[in-house]
Amino acid sequence: MLLLQCARGRATNQRYHIHELAEFSVEGGYLIDGFPSTGHTSAIASASLINAMGFTPVATIDSDMLKWARERKAEWIVSSVAVGSQIPEGKIMAVGSTEEARKKISGASMEVMGSGMITGIPGALLNHGAIGGQNVIVVLYNPAHEGADYRSGALLCTAMSRLVPGTACDIDALQAEAEKAERAMREAETESGEGILKRGMYG
């Protein structure tokens, strides 16, 4: 299995290239796209997979993912994207580029999204996968809020681990981070409210 993650970046019209750092094979395996999208949930989930499984870097990315995946004989490509109000908050769905991909989604006890708008890198992967017969699965979620959404990250990571055999997530760590982030947000809101009150009284 190969997991691709980029700390920062966005889809553009430029071509990317993958530079291998070590000899490895993903024949019959999975290629997971962990590029960040709305709320950084994808990056949080992929980082949890990396940490839980103890993966080591074998390449750097800057390329056409589908072409490279075919050349390396990867059987599956798994990506994710936030779709906002297209699905309820806290729910995970998925869409597949082929009939085999859709059967795999159903087999993982996940709902297949019948219609909707998938943009960015995941949308491009689905389109090209459908045209070329490459198995692509994009997991869809509705983030609770902008920023580091650890609860959505936990849901997404769990969904990906159901799709990719032999993987696991550090859910306890994600839940702890979620609680820490929520406490920080509540404290910030309290401080902000107190500041407004003081300015109203004395400003």
Total domains: 1
Tell me, briefly, the overall form. Answer: globular
Average predicted local confidence, pLDDT: 76
Structural class by SSE content:
alpha/beta
CATH class: Alpha Beta
**Helicity range of the residues?**
40-55%
CATH architecture: 3-Layer(aba) Sandwich
Number of distinct helices = 6
Order of helices and strands: EEEHEHEEHEHEHH
CATH topology: Rossmann fold
Largest sheet: 6 strands, mixed
Give the CA-CA distance, first to last residue: 59 Å
Overview of the molecule:
43% of the residues lie in helices and 18% in strands. The chain has 6 helices and 8 strands. It has helices spanning 41-53, 65-71, 99-107, 120-132, 150-163, 171-202, and strands spanning 2-4, 17-20, 30-33, 59-62, 76-82, 92-96, 111-112, 135-141. α1 (41-53) crosses α5.
Which features characterize this protein?
203 residues; alpha/beta; globular; two-stranded antiparallel ribbon; Rossmann fold; 6 helices; single chain; six-stranded mixed sheet
Short description, anyone?
Helix content is 43%, strand content 18%. It is α/β, with parallel strands linked by helices and 203 residues long. It has a single domain, classed as PAC-like subunit (Rossmann fold, 3-Layer(aba) Sandwich), CATH 3.40.50.
List the topology elements.
Layout: E1 2-4, E2 17-20, E3 30-33, H1 41-53, E4 59-62, H2 65-71, E5 76-82, E6 92-96, H3 99-107, E7 111-112, H4 120-132, E8 135-141, H5 150-163, H6 171-202
Parallel strand pairs: 1-3, 3-5, 5-8, 6-7
Antiparallel strand pairs: 2-4, 6-8
